[in-house]
C-alpha cells in the first residue's frame, strides 16, 4: 500500500498518490468552481453594497484546504471502503459535498474534523444505499472478542522463542496491505473509532463529533473495536502462516 499505516499520520507535504492523476481533473473543477463562487459572492456584495467580513476575506480557498488534507482523507476513505476504487468514488463524493458546504463552515480551525465528518456521512449514505446499516452493533453480551487477549495469546504461543520483544516482532510481520485486510473484516461501527483515534490522531471528543455519537458509545466501541482488531490480527497471521502455533491436543 501507499498509505503509511505504521506512521499513523500523514505528516509533511502531500505526497503523490496513485489516484492523483485521476483526481487532477477534479481539482481543476474544484479550483474553477471555487473561483466562480468567490467572484459571484464579491459581485453580489458590490451590487448590494454589503461589506464582507474580515473572517470571510481571510478564508483560504477550498482547493487549498483540500490539498492540505488530501492524503489523510484519502487514507480514511480507503480504510472505510476496503477498496481503492470505492475509496476514490467516496473521496470524490465527499469533496463535492464539502465544496458546496464550505462557505457555511464557521470554525476554520476545525476544517480537518469537518472534512472527516463529511466523508463519514458520505460513507454512511453509500452503505445505506447498498442495504447495509453501518451504525448497527451486535448487542450480545457474550462477545467472543471480549475475552481474547493478543498479548496473552502471543505470550502463550511464543512464536518467536528467541525474541526479547515478542509483540513488536509480531506486528512487524504485517505489511500495510495485511493491516488493511484485517481492517476490512471489522464491524464498521467499531472500525471507524479505531481509524479516527489511533491512525488519524483525533481526540475522543473530535471523534464523537465526526461520528455523531455520545462519548460513552465511542469509548465502548473503541474497546470492542480493539478487541476485534486484536483477534483479527492473530487469526490473519495464523491463516496466512505468518506464525507457527502449537497443535490442538
Q: What do you see in this structure?
A:
The structure is a single chain. By secondary structure, this protein is mostly helical. The chain has 2 domains: 20-129, RNA polymerase sigma factor, region 2, helix turn helix motif (Rna Polymerase Sigma Factor, Chain: A); 150-239, Winged helix-like DNA-binding domain superfamily/Winged helix DNA-binding domain (Arc Repressor Mutant, subunit A, Orthogonal Bundle), CATH 1.10.10.10. Helix content is 64%, strand content 0%. The protein contains 11 helices and no strands. The protein has helices spanning 20-48, 54-58, 62-81, 84-101, 111-129, 150-157, 166-171, 176-185, 188-199, 204-211, 215-239. Helix 3 packs across helix 5 and helix 9 packs across helix 11 (215-239). Residues 1-19 and 44-56 have low confidence and may be disordered.
- Rg from Cα: 22 Å
CATH first level of the largest domain: which class?
Mainly Alpha
Question: Number of helical segments?
Answer: 11
Most strands sheet: none
How many beta-strand elements? Answer: 0
Q: So, the CATH homologous superfamily of the largest domain?
A: RNA polymerase sigma factor, region 2, helix turn helix motif
List keywords for this structure.
single chain, 249 residues, mainly alpha, Rna Polymerase Sigma Factor, Chain: A, Arc Repressor Mutant, subunit A, 2 domains, 11 helices, disordered N terminus
Amino acid at each position: 500500500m501507499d498509505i503509511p499505516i505504521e506512521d499513523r499520520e500523514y505528516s509533511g507535504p502531500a505526497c503523490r498518490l496513485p489516484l492523483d492523476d485521476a483526481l487532477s481533473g477534479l481539482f481543476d473543477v474544484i479550483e474553477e468552481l471555487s473561483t466562480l463562487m468567490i467572484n459571484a459572492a464579491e459581485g453580489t456584495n458590490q451590487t448590494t453594497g454589503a461589506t464582507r467580513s474580515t473572517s470571510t476575506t481571510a478564508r483560504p480557498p477550498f482547493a487549498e484546504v483540500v490539498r492540505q488534507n488530501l492524503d489523510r482523507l484519502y487514507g480514511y476513505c480507503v480504510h472505510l471502503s476496503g477498496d481503492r476504487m470505492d475509496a476514490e468514488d467516496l473521496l470524490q463524493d465527499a469533496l463535492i459535498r464539502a465544496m458546496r458546504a464550505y462557505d457555511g463552515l464557521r470554525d476554520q480551525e476545525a476544517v480537518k474534523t469537518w472534512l472527516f465528518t463529511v466523508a463519514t456521512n458520505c460513507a454512511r449514505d453509500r452503505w445505506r444505499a447498498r442495504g447495509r446499516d453501518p451504525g448497527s452493533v451486535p448487542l450480545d453480551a457474550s462477545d467472543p472478542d471480549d475475552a481474547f487477549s493478543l498479548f496473552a495469546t502471543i505470550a502463550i504461543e511464543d512464536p518467536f522463542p528467541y525474541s526479547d520483544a515478542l509483540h513488536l516482532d509480531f506486528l512487524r510481520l504485517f505489511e500495510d496491505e495485511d493491516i488493511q485486510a484485517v481492517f476490512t473484516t471489522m464491524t464498521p461501527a467499531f472500525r471507524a473509532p479505531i481509524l479516527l483515534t489511533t491512525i488519524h490522531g483525533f481526540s475522543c471528543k473530535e471523534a464523537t463529533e465526526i461520528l455523531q455519537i455520545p462519548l460513552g458509545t465511542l469509548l465502548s466501541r473503541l474497546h470492542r473495536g480493539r478487541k476485534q482488531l486484536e483477534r483479527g490480527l492473530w487469526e490473519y497471521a495464523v491463516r496466512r502462516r505468518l506464525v507457527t502455533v502449537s497443535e490442538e491436543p
